[in-house]
Amino acid sequence: xxxxxxxxxxxxxxxxxxxxxxxxxxxxxxxxxxxxxxxxxxxxxxxxxxxxxxxxxxxxxxxxxxxxxxxxxxxxxxxxxxxxxxxxxxxxxxxxxxxxxxxxxxxxxxxxxxxxxxxxxxxxxxxxxxxxxxxxxxxxxxxxxxxxxxxxxxxxxxxxxxxxxxxxxxxxxxxxxxxxxxxxxxxxxxxxxxxxxxxxxxxxxxxxxxxxxxxxxxxxxxxxxxxxxxxxxxxxxxxxx
Length: 241
Known about the structure:
By secondary structure, the protein is of the alpha/beta class. The protein contains five helices and ten strands. The longest helix is centred in the middle third of the chain and has 13 residues, at 117-129.
């Protein structure tokens, strides 16, 4: 795993509501210090051709398995390319997105960000466990605000509430590099379509790449435009019912 202290990215000086098993039994996975007692466990995760092992814990999102939304994101988001040099896993949890992205694109610098200290520790350990050497973990406030990302991958923490979610996404989407793009996965019962409308109203081009089992995979361009995957066969505009 990369050394956070030496990394130039850092400052110098969801499943539907019915899927209760994806959430901690007590406390919230978006808290800095989860109140629920630690109960680490090891799970096997298969993503396409990859067979990986992760340690998860109580107090983080979906501790018992890779949730369906994140799996869709990992399987269906456009592949990382040579131009995707700096990748952000926003809300990393126990690290499946960061680790898979790092393994698929070993030349990229993958930054895994979370407010949850337990999540950051798990992601760091899982990157080492799966021999992913290009993943760095950081708290949001430790990331240089001037840094720009070529790709953002995120299963947003819908349960923080609309205002907090909008603030979170506004802050990080404004860090997309010119020509960069973000891929978000959100279930329609948790507000994917209203989120897409809000992003569009904010000035982003938003396209729905995949709609499956209620999940929407959204591609979001920087405000002001950028190259899109929306010309791929089967791609819909986000406003399509």
